[in-house]
């Protein structure tokens, strides 16, 4: 069968599949790491298996896009505080100043691109940056997938299947960044996870223990010591030129709750004086604003990057503009944007600049004319929405509830940790989806990605 989530390996898997299996895994299986048993989203029993060529495409795009995003403040705003404040921070110059100070440290951060795979290759839908990027946890479900598919464990004719251990790659990246950026070459690396004060104590310890296990595995490879702490950010104090928690030095701070905005002066001082690696500073957070995709395209059209980079940006980022009542170029014609959106609704998606889990996303082809008009008016009033050309996913066949292979639409999450590719995972939805939004929170099924090497 052509165009399945197994790509070139469909025949090999189907021929060697001895018995029918349910379309989603048993997420209470003992084969799953205890921390993730009872996972709230359904996970496909069938993996997505890609070849070297697609792997290379994902690797390139997931490290390229965050790299050029880092240049937006200087190339588009000329690092001018007033312009940055007005665009990102509702005119707050102090926040803009702090953000730019953090950003100009030019520290590698982690990101996850959300992509769709089209007839013209991968297209960037949005960029998530910092520590709160879901999907890294899927390495913990990989053992049960191998258990269900013996073909994955075999290496015949030099063919192998690899699923990236994204969480482990990320923790390894964190340790490397501490050693690279934190002054003094610490022999002990302690990581502080920020939690809300009201969080249940037992849950805190469970989370801390899990991340501590990951950290210890990486530190042991380097003969280093360290631990993970988890508590309120207010418990961190900057004294004697170091950041401390209960008199224990801290070398990295991660904010796993992306909604937390209260970054304390102590943490800021530690960052500015190179005492911690802190990927969630304000200079990172404004780069995930979806309007930056429009700015990147504008810069590429103005040839602000290298020729190959300009070409790559315009190829992998679909036509994207900030919703406003203005004249602009669309497919070689100058048109009024609002008139264009109204006349050709099936070609566009409108989405908020900094939304989560598919909220405030309006896909024109799945809405009535009245619903689409309301979306246009709302986006005009708030001035924080983008319109993006709808990038239709290639239909790939995957099993449904009845184990019938039917067409699905996919969104890919590809991880980039600085210049390191961290693998990918997929959310997929059967074509009967009536909203056009493919997200775990709206019913999509997760799938683990394997790379097929020959």
From TrEMBL:
This is Glutathionylspermidine synthase pre-ATP-grasp-like domain-containing protein. It comes from the Bacteria. It comes from Kordia antarctica.
């Amino acid at each position: 069968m052509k165009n399945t989530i197994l790509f070139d390996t469909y025949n090999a898997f189907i021929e060697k599949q001895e018995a029918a299996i349910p379309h989603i895994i048993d997420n209470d299986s003992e084969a799953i790491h205890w921390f993730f048993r009872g996972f709230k989203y359904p996970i496909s029993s069938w993996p997505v298996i890609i070849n070297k060529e697609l792997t290379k495409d994902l690797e390139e795009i997931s490290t390229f896009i965050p790299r050029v995003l880092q240049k937006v403040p200087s190339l588009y705003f000329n690092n001018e505080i007033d312009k940055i404040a007005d665009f990102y921070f509702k005119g707050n110059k102090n926040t803009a100043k702090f953000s730019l100070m953090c950003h100009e440290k030019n520290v590698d951060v982690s990101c996850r691109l959300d992509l769709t795979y089209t007839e013209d290759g991968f297209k960037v839908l949005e960029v998530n940056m910092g520590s709160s990027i879901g999907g890294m946890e899927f390495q913990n479900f990989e053992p049960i997938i191998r258990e269900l598919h013996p073909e994955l464990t075999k290496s015949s004719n030099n063919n192998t299947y690899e699923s990236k251990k994204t969480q482990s790659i990320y923790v390894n990246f964190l340790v490397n960044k501490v050693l690279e950026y934190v002054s003094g070459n610490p022999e002990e690396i302690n990581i502080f996870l920020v939690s809300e004060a009201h969080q249940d104590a037992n849950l805190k310890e469970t989370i801390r223990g899990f991340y501590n296990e990951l950290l210890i595995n990486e530190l042991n490879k380097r003969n280093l010591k360290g631990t993970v702490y988890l508590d309120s950010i207010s418990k961190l104090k900057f004294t004697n030129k170091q950041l401390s928690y209960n008199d224990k030095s801290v070398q990295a701070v991660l904010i796993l709750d992306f909604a937390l905005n209260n970054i304390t002066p102590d943490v800021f001082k530690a960052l500015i004086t190179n005492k911690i690696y802190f990927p969630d500073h304000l200079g990172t957070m404004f780069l995930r604003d979806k309007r930056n995709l429009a700015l990147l395209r504008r810069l590429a059209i103005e040839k602000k990057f290298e020729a190959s980079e300009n070409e790559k940006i315009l190829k992998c980022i679909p036509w994207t503009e900030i919703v406003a009542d203005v004249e602009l170029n669309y497919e070689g014609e100058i048109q009024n944007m609002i008139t264009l959106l109204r006349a050709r609704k099936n070609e566009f998606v409108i989405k908020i600049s900094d939304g989560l889990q598919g909220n405030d996303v309006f896909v024109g082809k799945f809405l009535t004319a009245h619903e689409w008009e309301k979306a246009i008016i709302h986006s005009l009033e708030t001035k924080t929405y983008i319109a993006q050309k709808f990038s239709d996913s290639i239909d790939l066949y995957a099993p449904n509830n009845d184990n019938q292979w039917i067409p699905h639409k996919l969104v890919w999450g590809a991880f980039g940790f600085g210049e390191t590719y961290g693998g990918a995972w997929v959310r997929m939805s059967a074509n009967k989806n009536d909203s056009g939004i493919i997200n775990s929170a709206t019913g999509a099924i997760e799938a683990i990605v394997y790379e097929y090497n020959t």
